Amino acid sequence: MRESAVAVVVFLFLSWAVTEGRLGWFSDTLADAQDQAYDALASLEYHFASPVAPPAGTPPVVFVDIDDDTVQAANISPYLFHRGVLADLLTRVAATQPRAVYVDLNLSAPSQEPVLDRRGTARFPRSAGDEALLTALRAPHAFPVLLSQPAVFGEPLSRFGAACWVTPAVITDSGDTVRRVPRRWADGPYPVSEALFQASQPGGFQCPDARRGSSPPRDVYRTALYGEPIVFHEVPTSGARTYAWPGLSVISARTVLAQDAPVLEPGALVVVGRTDADNLDMHGSAVGSLPGVELHLNALMTLLAYRHPVVALDPIASSLLAFAAMLLAILAAPLLSGLLTRGLTRLGVRRQVGDVFEHPIMWGLLFGAAFLAYRYAGRFLDFALPIVSLELARLALGRRLNQLATKTLKMAKLLN
């Protein structure tokens, strides 16, 4: 009981240290431990199918994948997707009357090389493909066309009726790693996932007037520090029979371009992006390096499936949930350890080694509770600080390090 009481006090202190960040490198170290704990949960969940589906009435999400087959079939430069082919692709997508379309490509500059005049001023001539894309974007649409920059080939989005600027920026934690859903900062542009989530709602997405203007506001690419944790699932290649995210399907852009009749389901949220081998938009995430478009898809599906508000859960509330899980583990671990000890005693194992299982059982209970919360509720239940608190409590009560090492070795021998 003394050890448990000390662990509670230590946990409250560590939670304060992480939340307030006033202990310098120590607070940073604890925050890094929480990030690593989240990465362990995300990596375990990544290859499973999600048990949670978006509620009935949610429009389907279709990822139009500019994959290796598309790039090779079009016989185009692998570094800049042909603007004329993109114009054809967007025209075909628009024919299905989607709920919204997001294009995860950089369209800020024309595809031609700049030309210098006598004064040294650079001019950017437009290709026929550039002009075709401008024509496709100027066409009237009843749905928003979300773009990753405030201008297309130097022309502000105010000249394109349905176009709206959203930011493709992502939130990175320790290790330059993406773990969180980004949320809108002040009067800046909406992040991709938040804009598409709003488009899925009955009222649809309303583009702020400022995002159609020609002059970007200050701090335009800044988003809030943190949103909810992203629940990561593998985005399969086109033609896969099963999908980890219910409500998400993938179709190759080559398939869309090759069919005369529309192949997309009407009223869908359509995301167009690249995953081919020459795609340069790669980011570190909790589950490894992923194309930027897959980060947006996982963030969107997290919002759609778990119906989270975009604003993250308050750190105090998150700490209280972790505290409750630690108390349950403290109460349950001795009972389970006692049952295990009695079972081992019947098998002839000395009773003195039975107590070495108590803390590993606590660790297992904390990790199991965190995994269930992540998988079924889309919440990150920190299990790193409770484990650190329990071990610091053992040290604070005079347990010597060599005694801890001896018990650990005994447990290892039993397991082997």
From TrEMBL:
What the entry lists under Pfam families is as follows: CHASE2
List residues traversing the bilayer. Answer: 320-340, 361-377
- Domain spans labelled CHASE2: 30-333
Keyword check for Ion transport:
no
InterPro entries according to UniProt: CHASE2
Does the record carry Membrane as a key word? yes
The record's keywords, sorted A to Z, are: Membrane, Transmembrane, Transmembrane helix
Indicate what this protein is called per its UniProt record: CHASE2 domain-containing protein
User: Per the UniProt entry, what species is this protein from, by scientific name?
Assistant: Deinococcus metalli
